[in-house]
Amino acid sequence: MKQVKRTLIFQDCEQIERTVDLLSAAEKMYGEAPFEAYALVIDGSAGPDGPDGPSEPLSGFFDKIIHLSRQVIEPHDQIGICAVLTQLQKEYQFDSILVPATPFGRMIAPRLAKRLHTGIVADITDIRRQDGKVEIIRPAYSGRLMAAIVTRGSGPVMMSVRPGVFKYAGEGGMKTEVRKYTAPVEARGSLKPLAVKEKQISYDIRESDVLISGGGGVLRSFSGLQRLADALQGRVSASRKIVDRGIAPRSIQVGQSGRTVSPRLYIALGINGAIQHVDGMKNIESIISVNTNRNAPICSLADIVVEGDAMEFIDKLTDRIEAFRSEAQGEQQ
Amino acid sequence: MKIICVVKIVPDVDSFAYDYENNTLIREHIRMVLNPDDACALAFALKVKASRPDCSIEVVTMGPQSVRPHVEDLLRLDTDRGTIISDPAYRGSDTYVTSKILARYLSSRQFDVLFTGSHALDGDTSHVPAQIGEELGLEQMSGITAVDLERFDGRRAVFEVEYEQLGSYLGNGHARNPEPGPGERLQAALREVRRLPEGRLRQIDGDRQRRARLCPRGGRQRRLPDRRWSGPTHRALRPATAA
Asked: Model-level pTM?
């Protein structure tokens, strides 16, 4: 019987650089015990003529990378990918399989769990160890409840992990073996992507270091946030109140039903800070809250609380930044 | 064309209650609603039916007896058949078992397409649609935002998916958009009182499913789980009280 635990991390070709973060989830699950980390990489982002595929950023973090090239499988073929994963499970007998909870990951993972006759925990946000038992935490019922899930049974432990919640701090530097998967794929699906359209908002709020976030307090002047975002070279994000009114698209929503963000600076303008919103704020270095109500829940989390009108704050701060910039430029000359 | 909509009647988030002793959601004596995403799916099915005279819609749900009035309401719309799969033994089923029970019934039916919502308001695992797909050997797609009606028939479907989006647009049931979503339109349509058509509602329990010896595609008979699935178990953490 093998002693060392073995985990497989599935990489969604949409978020390559985040795959490493799932190692942190595996670490939390196994505690101090060493484990072997495998990654399944699907060559989706690199074109047919591109470099050796997107496994490069993962090199050094995993014991083994299994590389599935575009020639072997289409990156969105759920039937084919499940067939490959089933084959790999037979071969390596993984103890756990972690899938990022991206829209595609959340279609693949339950299908695979069914095929492997094991249970699966969806969209997890934390893992705890208590008395040697592993508890997997996920929000349920629109965030009203956090559920702790204990796995039993013999199958591999499977979970889909909410993107952006875990952060892996390891340095890498491991010796990584790369295997190209060339075995024939048992079954293939028939779904074909016909066309891909870019969305209007091209930025991803999860990648921004500075977020200027607006809530119910700036309903009428939400577009004014852009000025401060430009001055700080940040991005604008929003709470659900703004998104539900159709003022901003869902893709820039922070919170449980939106995105989980980890910027260095988060400026919350007129945001009350309901638990569902705070749920989307993870590992933020500094939070500044501007609110007319100093008792708003978000103010208890903030490093700096400004009591007052958000728009006035934007005007004054932007003016100061611009004045400071032009002064600094003047000194240089 | 035969469409089957698999729907779920869920507790309204604003009035949900949890039984911490037995670790199940309390589904009695609280306000229940048709899951908003499933309402979108059904609304689209009704749209398809409106444009084709040969189309029929069956609504399938699994739940306690108390969901009956909700399914009756759906039959007052332009749906042709309603099926409730209900058995005390199914209470607290996880997604593995739920999809097995639903797929077992579905495999006895003829259909061209299955519609479900992407997310459910209560559990929000999004597992059941994919797992029904796996059980029946069908491909499945979540998060569909538009379907091309011109190119939609029993053999093909052309649709749009928003990959960026986390959760479905109407997934929270509180969308207050300038234009009402399909879910809201459905609710509005429900308000027109219609007579309940007779003989269109069927109820199936575990014994009947077992007796029926339903044969899925491929001819191999599948056994319905006798016991609860022994996979993950869960307990709810009590909501943190404000410090």
From this structure: 0.72
